[in-house]
């Protein structure tokens, strides 16, 4: 996530509006994520002003990265390669 932010901070900021059906995945502060569930285990994304929930299984993590990269308009083959390495 830090690398995606470094490549395109503005695109990453817009992509972090991605949300699940019941959860907010990204926020600019820990409190917002905790307000959406106290088991989300928020963690700061190094080198960015963003926080991400970490209490997810691998499939959900892949899906979150895929959604961010799709919103940032990365090529599908690169998205597949990145998410496959998670």
TrEMBL record:
Highest taxon of the lineage: Bacteria
Domain Replication modulator SeqA C-terminal DNA-binding span(s) in chain numbering: 1-84
Gene Ontology terms for molecular function: DNA binding
Pfam families cross-referenced by the UniProt entry: SeqA
Identification of the protein by name: Replication initiation regulator SeqA
């Amino acid at each position: 996530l830090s690398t995606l932010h470094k490549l395109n901070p503005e695109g990453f900021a817009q992509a972090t509006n991605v949300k699940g059906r019941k959860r907010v995945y990204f926020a600019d502060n820990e409190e917002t994520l905790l307000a959406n569930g106290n088991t989300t285990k928020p963690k700061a994304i190094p080198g960015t002003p963003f926080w991400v929930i970490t209490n997810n299984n691998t499939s959900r993590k892949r899906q979150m990265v895929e959604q961010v990269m799709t919103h940032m308009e990365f090529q599908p083959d690169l998205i597949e390669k990145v998410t496959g390495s998670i």
